[in-house]
């Protein structure tokens, strides 16, 4: 609905997600492709500067006003920092995410980000997240489940507050 709202007002957002499947579900592209960082696990100064030579990438990022990043909970802190660095360079601005309005969408109560080797940090543990200083909005209406007892059980489980009655129900 937010994307439709933006489009009704003549604002075409960049709709991205952390994985290809998630990007397909939201009608967008991966954040890796959109930002130009690709599948690299690290970007050096040279890599970031080389992004400026890709005219279509520079045009796409500079013409964006709103960046929507779905499934942000699956991105680790390092990768979010790489995206921030690339976007700042591509937009020629030292402001967080090059001055873009960024909408992070995700559920950090799900699995932690996937990493190879050492444990990774959540996106919200990155300096890029801190500098962006996002406003938090929590969705409270459940649309996928109508069993009140089950919903209450899930909410208690997420909060780490299971009671004996919850355990009995399980």
Arrangement of strands in the largest sheet = 2-1-3-4
N-C termini distance: 36 Å
Strand content: 5-15%
- Helix content, binned percent: 40-55%
Which structural category do the helix and sheet elements fall into? alpha/beta
Major sheet description:
4 strands, parallel
**Count of DSSP E strands?**
4
Continuous helix count: 9
H/E topology pattern: HEHEHHHEHEHHH
Outline the low-pLDDT stretches. none
Bulk shape: globular
Kindly report the average pLDDT value: 91
What's the Cα radius of gyration?
18 Å
Please give a quick description of this structure.
It is built from 9 helices and 4 strands; from the N terminus they run H-E-H-E-H-H-H-E-H-E-H-H-H. It is of the alpha/beta class and 170 residues long.
Report what the structure shows.
It is a single chain. This protein is α/β, with parallel strands linked by helices and 170 residues long. It is 42% helix and 9% strand. It has 9 helices and 4 strands; from the N terminus they run αβαβαααβαβααα. A 4-stranded parallel beta sheet has the order 2-1-3-4. Helix 6 links the parallel strand 3 (66-70) and strand 4 (101-105). The radius of gyration is 18 Å and the shape is globular. It starts with a helix and ends with a helix. The model has no long low-confidence stretch (mean pLDDT 91).
Distinctive features:
170 residues, alpha/beta, four-stranded parallel β-sheet, 9 helices, 9% strand
